[in-house]
Amino acid sequence: MVVMVGFGATAADVGPIAGNPLIEIPAGAFVFGRNDGLENEHPRQRIEGQGFAINRTEITNGQYRRFVGATGRRPAFYASHPLLGLDNRPVVGVSWADANAFCRYYGLALPSEQQYERAARGTAGAAFPWGAAAPDATKANAGAKICCSGDESDGYSMTAPAESFAEGASEEGVLNLVGNVWEWTSGVYAPYGSAATATSAGTYRVLRGGSWNSDPKHLTTTYRLAYDPEFRFSANGGFRCVRSAP
Amino acid sequence: MRPLRALTIVTGFLLLVAGAGAEPKVAPGYRFETVSVPGAVFGGLSRDGDALLLTDLASGRLYRRGPDGGLEAFGPVLPHGLDVIGDPTGPYRVVRAGRSLIVAQGWTPVNSGESPLDHALIAIDAADQARVVSSDFWNPFDLVVSGESYYVIDSAKNSVERVSADGRKETLLSFRRMEAAATTLRSLSPTEFSKDESYEVDAVPTGIALRDGRLYVTLFGGFPFLAGAGKVVSTPEAGGTSKPQLAVEGLNAPVSIAFDSDGGMLVLEHGIYDQKEGFQKGSGRLLKLGKTPLPREVILDGLTRPVSVLAWDARRLVISELGGNLYFLTRLLAR
């Protein structure tokens, strides 16, 4: 079933996760990486991407609780936290394997780094999902200018509801691709173009997008945060899922 | 020097209340007894005559344990619950000061209205009436009484405050962040922690004790709670401008300190933090350090989330755990 939502003419599929539709991202060329950023973000390249669909919001605690109830998997670390554990907030305190298991359960997958950038930067390699303008309190739930404290000037000392910050939506209507919580990707950390796999040395997985306590350096669409995939105490690390074209 | 960044964990030093661990192991020469109270979340300990005073963060109650071993609640029910970072908050410690008992009361529980008793030093009189001495704290976790002064650990401001009975208050010490080695951190994230740089973690004061005119303070390293990052520092009770002296280093999350009748320093280590699993069950220890800090004697090992140590008298020690356990150690006399 395909429904239209109020973000331009973008198609959204209700998808398998109740309350979190999948937003179609069409196939086509897009800009990936950048030359003016950190070395591990090089090079800027134009690549052909297949179409895919991505969750409109980060996976919420309510959605993750339903998964835990259905599968018996361990709850998120902050499931009982009075703020971080609220049903409508993005789930945090999950390892990469937890996030991957969630997506797999619904027949989906974690986004690749390329899919994340295509969703967050559009086709032209925009700085932010909403364009070139710097983040402000209406567009993203971000941290203080000096790392690494939360900042309440955007209305939230920690995570914000997954449906918030509509003004910061991408062209296709995907929310909070920058800010709120870092998002696990399927990517294994390595220089672009190398043949690293999950079994190669390191095996760090990459998170993208920055979070509620990120400073401007981290709050970009290209920053690659490599982390131990088993780490599950992060209060600012969550995820969303994608369905790739068959 | 860079602060920790990127992924963050939202935990204080108490983190979450632990489940029961295995039975602790006691050093030879001690008799060991356990008292467990299911559902309790024990906080600080102190002595009041022949009674043991303790707090329960689960109920917000103060307890007196008399010679018969029974626990009797007294005083008002104080604010209690989880704080904004998910830790238990409430009455952290109660200590006798003349005709009053002084309570270090933690910060406001989330989902509760602000109470005048929050983040305060509270005096409880003989009629069990509460009076706020000062609420100008963020999270007062421990205190020691000396004459007319109360020395209070603020575990959120990372300071030691001197408070008089009429509420006047001055900051005696503020702790700067501590340098941490990058080695352990780098195993978490190669993009955030470079081997060529050093990093800082919060120096969170936890326990305080007074000995020979000096205040001794345990410093619990902040996230990622690196093993060996904890310290004990001391400063003159009279204050002054000199830096605090390092007394002991290489500790695993020290949370409480006391001195026994021999002048030996007793340091309670909260435990070893596993970056994937949290504080490991059974990794807390009670250490005794002589006047010359080395060697360290492990008096009690295998503790799970211990929070307070009390030197009851020349032979007896008491330890509390968040999991509702009290441990009583009695040094056996040589024959």
Description:
The complex is a heterodimer of chains A (246) and B (335). Chain A has 246 residues and is of the alpha+beta class. Chain A has helices spanning 61-71, 96-105, 113-121, and strands at 2-4, 11-13, 22-25, 28-32, 45-49, 52-55, 182-188, 205-208, 225-227, 237-238, 242-244. Chain A has one domain (4-244): paralog of FGE (formylglycine-generating enzyme) (Alpha-Beta Complex). Helices cover 12% and strands 17% of the residues of chain A. Chain A is globular. In chain B, 2% of the residues lie in helices and 51% in strands. Chain B is built from one helix and 32 strands. Classes of the chains: A alpha+beta (246), B mainly beta (335). Chain A binds chain B through residues 40, 78, 80-84, 95, 147-148, 157-158, 182, 189, 202, 204, 207, 213-215, 218, 224-228, 230-237, and chain B through 3-11, 82, 84-86, 110-111, 187-192, 275-276, 278.
List the helices and strands and how they pair.
The complex is a heterodimer of chains A (246) and B (335).
Chain A: E1 2-4, E2 11-13, E3 22-25, E4 28-32, E5 45-49, E6 52-55, H1 61-71, H2 96-105, H3 113-121, E7 182-188, E8 205-208, E9 225-227, E10 237-238, E11 242-244
Parallel strand pairs in A: 7-10
Antiparallel strand pairs in A: 1-2, 2-3, 3-6, 4-5, 6-11, 7-8, 8-9
Chain B: E1 2-3, E2 25-26, E3 30-36, E4 42-48, E5 51-56, E6 61-65, E7 71-74, E8 81-82, E9 88-89, E10 91-97, E11 100-105, E12 120-124, E13 130-134, E14 140-146, E15 149-154, E16 159-164, E17 169-174, E18 178-180, H1 182-188, E19 199-201, E20 203-211, E21 214-221, E22 230-236, E23 245-251, E24 254-259, E25 265-269, E26 273-274, E27 278-279, E28 284-289, E29 296-303, E30 306-311, E31 316-321, E32 325-331
Parallel strand pairs in B: 1-19
Antiparallel strand pairs in B: 2-29, 3-32, 4-5, 5-6, 6-7, 8-9, 10-11, 11-12, 12-13, 14-15, 15-16, 16-17, 18-19, 20-21, 21-22, 22-23, 24-25, 25-28, 26-27, 28-29, 30-31, 31-32
